[in-house]
Amino acid sequence: MRLIKKMKSDLALTIEPSLAYPQTNFHQTFAFVIIFGQFFGIMPLHGITKKNVQEIRLEWKSFRFVYAVYNIFGAFIMGFFCILKFALDGLMLDKTATMSFYVLNFFGGIQFIIISKHWATIMKEWSFMEVSMRSYGSLISMKKRFVVMTSVIMTLALVEHLLFIANAFITSQNCTNATLYSGDEIYFRVAFPSVFTLIDYSLWKACFVEIANILSTATWNYTDLFIILISCSLASRFAQINHRLKNNKMMHEKFWKEIREDYNKLAHLTAVVDRNVAALVVISFVSNAFFICVQLYNSLKIRVGTIETIYYFFSFGFLVARTIAVILYGAWINDESRKPLEILHSVPSEHYCEEISRLIQQINSSPVGISGSKFFILTRSFLLKMASTIVTFELMFLQFGPLIKINTNYNSSYNNC
């Protein structure tokens, strides 16, 4: 886009901003994902549909921000009631997943606001990278990929939530005290026992709890989706460099210098993104790993009914698949960032130069990828490490579980609703 300002003389001043260019960029492609999240109180940004990234802003006095605060507040209240229930009745190992669900989504909601605060800076860095790598072309199919991934993950999340509602509704029909309460009250007592066994039921409280639960569920699934899509975009850019290296017919030092500089810009962008999303990655993996452990432990329970069985296995399978997807897409960045080594090590001796040596040294000494606040970096081997960790915790649960109050009947916690 060229802005031409007419001067008093016959000369024309041409200004070509580095942040405005005709190719489809990440900011425009990812806008769909952010707008989708805003329906659930996530990423309360303004100016996200504007072409210029400098117009992105977080407005503290806006409905979107208030809605995001409501999401966080709802998760906090629900988590508080879960903790209070444990304080009064004792810790129940098989029910700790509900508490961790709300507590971790509370921190996840806060983290999304922090990311929103720095999103404009991230997009500026991303746009500078795209401008400098304009010769590689834009990622044409990326928007379609975003739409498909978002649709699949959030649709499966909706199915899981509907199964949760159906399971709670069917269970409420078999409740021993069903005749003492109205139909809607008995449902909420069954679905949210940590709340309505401690306070009296009323319609406005039920609405608050249901909305808080929906928003927390959306936040939980959106967190993994967000990490997957960010990782996919960064990895695709590294793949462009690898594609250029494979199709290269030139061996002069200038070409290798351009490759090294482009790689360095991508590595810097990945570091900027990692610095802002690392805490979200930790929340995601702590939440998913703990849920998998508890769900495996809950497999010891006796289940009655088709819906109950379908809900358990669908929920568990979806959780495992989502966790694996986050790891593999996150590891894709690291995989693509190391692929140049295969080509660099095969360069003939007569064409070997200092730029190649510097690039090899950078790749080997500075691993590139998304990390969990520097505690770990997402690689393919991390999948096996996480699996071994889950097995270890599962053995601990089986060993110390009998020391903690636990229900062996899946519906026993609902029988005194």
Overview of this structure, please?
- By secondary structure, the protein is mainly alpha-helical.
- Helices cover 68% and strands 2% of the residues.
- It has twelve helices and two strands, in the order E-E-H-H-H-H-H-H-H-H-H-H-H-H.
- The radius of gyration is 25 Å and the shape is elongated.
- The termini are far apart.
- The relative contact order is 0.12.
- The model is unreliable at 1-22 and 406-416 (pLDDT under 50).
Instruction: Count up the helices.
Output: 12
List unreliable stretches of 5+ residues. Answer: 1-22, 406-416
Major sheet: arrangement of strands: 1-2
Radius of gyration: 25 Å
What sort of overall outline do the alpha carbons produce when their principal axes are compared? elongated
Kindly state the mean pLDDT as a whole number? 85
Tell me the series of helices and strands, N- to C-terminal. Answer: EEHHHHHHHHHHHH
Helicity level: 55-70%
- Taking the alpha carbons of the first and last residues, their distance comes to 64 Å
List keywords for this structure.
417 residues, mainly alpha, two-stranded antiparallel ribbon, 12 helices, elongated, disordered N terminus
Short description:
The chain contains twelve helices and two strands. The protein has helices spanning 26-38, 63-89, 96-132, 142-173, 183-191, 193-196, 203-246, 253-298, 306-338, 340-344, 354-365, 380-400; strands spanning 3-6, 12-15.
Task: Outline the secondary-structure elements.
Elements: E1 3-6, E2 12-15, H1 26-38, H2 63-89, H3 96-132, H4 142-173, H5 183-191, H6 193-196, H7 203-246, H8 253-298, H9 306-338, H10 340-344, H11 354-365, H12 380-400
Antiparallel strand pairs: 1-2
Helix pairs in contact: 1-4, 2-3, 2-7, 3-7, 3-8, 4-5, 4-7, 4-9, 7-8, 7-9, 8-9, 8-11, 8-12
